[in-house]
What we know:
The structure is a homodimer.
Chain A: H1 6-13, H2 17-25, H3 32-45, H4 51-58, E1 63-68, H5 74-87, E2 93-98, H6 103-114, E3 120-124, H7 130-138, E4 143-146, E5 156-159, H8 162-175, E6 181-186, H9 190-205, E7 214-217, H10 223-236, E8 242-245, H11 248-261, E9 270-272, E10 289-291, H12 294-309, E11 319-321, E12 325-327
Parallel strand pairs in A: 1-2, 1-3, 3-4, 4-5, 5-11, 6-7, 6-8, 8-9
Antiparallel strand pairs in A: 10-12
The structure holds a DNA duplex.
Amino acid sequence: MKRPTLIDVGREAGVSAITVSRxxxxxxxxxxxxxxxxxxxxxxxxxxPNPAAASLASNRSSIxxxxxxxxxxxxxxxxxxGTNAVLEKTGYSIQIANTGYNPIAEEGMIRKFVSLSxxxxxxxxxxQTAASRKMLKDVDCPVVQIMDITDDPVDVIVGFSxxxxxxxxxxxxxxxxxxxxxFVGTRMDPRTQQRMAGYEAVMRKHxxxxxxxxITTPQKSSVEIGxxxxxxxxxxxxxxxxxxxxxxxxxxxIALECQRRNxxxxxxxxxxxxxxxxxxxxxxxxxxxxxxxxVEIGERAAQYIIDRNAGHPKPEVRNIDLGFTLKVRASTLxxxxx
Amino acid sequence: MKRPTLIDVGREAGVSAITVSRxxxxxxxxxxxxxxxxxxxxxxxxxxPNPAAASLASNRSSIxxxxxxxxxxxxxxxxxxGTNAVLEKTGYSIQIANTGYNPIAEEGMIRKFVSLSxxxxxxxxxxQTAASRKMLKDVDCPVVQIMDITDDPVDVIVGFSxxxxxxxxxxxxxxxxxxxxxFVGTRMDPRTQQRMAGYEAVMRKHxxxxxxxxITTPQKSSVEIGxxxxxxxxxxxxxxxxxxxxxxxxxxxIALECQRRNxxxxxxxxxxxxxxxxxxxxxxxxxxxxxxxxVEIGERAAQYIIDRNAGHPKPEVRNIDLGFTLKVRASTLxxxxx
DNA sequence: TTGACAAATGATTGCGCAATCATTTAGCAA
DNA sequence: TTGCTAAATGATTGCGCAATCATTTGTCAA
Lengths: 338, 338
């Protein structure tokens, strides 16, 4: 009562094992009559292919490796949803790893994944170690970096400019008359740092730069940490009149703390979030945020892998910028200014 | 320049391939001297085991299959974080699938996973189809159901009673003097329905049951949907004086809509959430919610699989109830009552 | 009818490893 | 020393499949 093999199916259908194998992988090369008999035999025996044997024989697997820095960050669960939506109708399966924002840990995970001969790799960011980058260059499958943009991807990159997204947001706040705009940053991963750089560039351009306006913490972002950071900010910079946050939950926490302190938003204090995760738009007042195309990034990354493995050539444009959208809402809209 | 095999390592170290294999899997059976030589050879050649070959030869893989109904639901990302934290130090890898709350789709995913000879299966809930259940019974590895509790798990179950959690919450609200308590349910998956049943039992017990107090939608829960549902609820049941929500984001949306309508919480209207995802505790006023041990569930499930595969016997207690904690906060605390 | 060629099908082999069984070496009591 | 046992190491085999090459069958023009 052991699991049937291709040979068993072949015997049942009266054909050789390799014909069954072909019927499954290249059905157009097998006659209709045999395909039908084989299909019946498969159903009768309950045959299911053995992926390990297939992988060993062909030296490639149907596993797509996805490396993200966090599972709990909604940004990456959205990416994963997009990737999964595209892949679930295919024969690929998703193997995930959580790098924990640690490039050294990431390197080990890449090494492990590469040993699987994956069908594709999706990895967040561009800040891999040199060794990681080399492994990704050498692995014989499509590699998609995501959530960022660069002219020099390992293979291709699908994302947006964190720098530009931050700069656009801060420009908007400046246009609305905010002057003492703080940067609130959590975790301080590479993409947060790029947002910080975008913030800094705009502040300097308008001669509003002030080093004391940076409020950062290595802790992960959360509503709670947002509340605490606002308290610290107002102690440190009493004349602060707005914040650009590196993530929405921090912005929500800050907005809630403003409510508690009766700090008038947007009149006395402007708030801008990042990622537009859904809660910001529902707050009182609604909070301005930068929408980032996370689900679409996941989808496009998966689709690229499917296409390349189906024989499509490597595209000319290897950095696919899906952009972002500043969702201007009440929290930064001061009537009579701008 | 192809990838080295056990034979290559053996040649380099001056031993046979099988000794290298043993040194990696059962080091205590290989002398220290050889272990050192082998270890050096592995480093020198950059040997990495081929999991497909290992799986084919041994008829078991080191893949742990995790089936969850949603990636974007924070509940399951927390579970995954816990599972990952336990597994990442081990040789296991995690392969995930999103069942989309669809038992038929789930069945196909189980079939696929079973074909991998997984080292373990973690699956949300107890509402698998008969065919799914049979496959899970037959698969030769530990199977952990999670997020629920039952006397009759496939193998073991790690979770809590959704019914009891809801009942405890509603009892609290009744004790605080709320009478026209609505149930707000989104998605209406099996666990939500158990919460609804817990709500109903308590309402009936206190003779407060009223069919018009059920507000449900098949849509996924979100802050936005919570706001809309409150509007519908107040239209339908103007004398409603509180809600028990099946998820925190709905509760947050309802609280924000109450702010907008100047509906006094907790005096005129009580709000209780579910899962205690973090934002509820930061709201103004803070929202009561049921903390559920999601991360711990993920950890325990992973640890069980590790232990069983290490030879531990099946435990006597096969339903591991990790309980829940009602976090009573301002949104349901009426002074002078209860 | 024949021959040439394409389409369809089959036989053989090896992927890299672990299970199994066989052999050698080490340790030690008598 | 001998003889015995346990520990350490090795040789052989097959897991289930796909790559490669070989063979058969079908098709059609001349």
